[in-house]
Amino acid sequence: MAQISVNHVTFCYEGSYDNIFEDVSFQIDTDWRLGLIGRNGRGKTTFLRLLLAELEYEGSIRTNIVFDYFPYRLRAEYDLQNAVDVLYELSPECELWRVLCELEQVKLDAEVLYRPFGQLSKGEQTKLMLALLFSQENHFLLIDEPTNHLDIQAREVVRDYLSRKSGFILVSHDRRFLDACIDHVLVINKNSMEVERGNFSSWWENKEKRDAFELAENEKLKKEIGRLQAAARRTALWADKVEATKIGFDPVKEPDRFKNTRSYIGMKSKRMQQRRKNLERRQENAIEEKSRLLKNIETAENLKLKPLHYHKSVLIEARDLALCYSAEPAKPLFEGVCFRLGDGQCLAIQGRNGAGKSSIIRAILAQTAADKEIETGDTQCGTGTEEAPQITSGELRVPAGFIVSYVSQDTSFLRGSIREYAEKRKISEPLLFALLRKLDFERVQFEKPMESYSEGQKKKVLLAGSLCEQAHLYIWDEPLNFIDVFSRMQLEALIKTYRPTMLLIEHDEAFIQEIGAEVLRL
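Below the sequence we write its predicted structure tokens.
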């Protein structure tokens, strides 16, 4: 069993104001199934790049093993090549028989190897890449968010697959996925990194206990410091009064006083001054102890939303709905879909990739005023000129004159500054900044171009933009991709508190269960 030893590592990007990692030290074993947890922008992917020796840093990372990274850096020309040729391009030393053994474990038929790589679904590509990774012996794997864009069925297959493996670091924000796959946790806190045995749930339970203890200890120390400050002031006042009586006295008022009492008064004043110094020293110790607390507590402020309520009880209704695209009029995506979305209701659409989940959203947007902007090619909502599906049978009822706030699963259109984004989307810039601050955005990020943001930070910009809007219906297409666990919990609390009318496509089962959404399965 080998080890990875991280010793006094410090790193920051060129031109950055602050270090991402500062004097970090820990050790991990290479047979662990390690989950890497941290808020967006804390440096999870950066840490993986440090292990891969792609970035220069201070300190040392010592190990004798080879690292492999998921997802692979794929080139556009791979889409036209057969999948088996892509495997050899990515890893010329791979052994096909080992890959075939792994494909069986991820429930993927060997025939996918001889299909064009670009024709494989996201789930098939993910499974194929993971099979390639685990087919190589004596490699330690760095698996960065494998569940993004995977449907529930594919997540279950990948989850079961990883739970039988070992020797990897897994970055994921899906709580149930992490619980099933990992036996140790590596956490990037605000001011440190720590390793703990267990899965996400056990770490979270311990974290809540630690946070509660530190908060209670902090309150106790605050009271103690206040008491010591008052006592020190009181003692200093007494000492000063006694010191002032050391020289000179009124024989009439103080008949028992004589010159030799001067030394006695001086000693009394000295003792009181010493007591004051002792109180101040205890106060300094309490302040120092207090300064060590709360450094890594994650503050998750409550988000706010002002949804509009429509005058009708039912906003959207589908009866025996079938959709298709004009290029394939004879082949509907699905048939016989029925659902109703009432005011204040939350509905989550689930199903395998390609089942038509996003097509339902496009069909709804096509019948709303919001779609007029989308069809003109305005990418402020992230949809560009996507084609709307056609209704081949059944009906989709969408009332006129109601407002929709839409969050796309695509973030690639975000360019320029946040201020330009707020102006283009016609939302309040101070409100947008305030919401992003609550979602753990550093102020310095507001001055950077959005192209430099991590995927999680880009998604937060879209979500905060939607929360700035007052709408009758909030449509979010896979909103939690790349979003950290703490922000997911903030969004859960928001939806439970304000109960907006919401249509979601989301595969995080813990999130769906927590917000009490009804589920439409395609």
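The radius of gyration is 31 Å.
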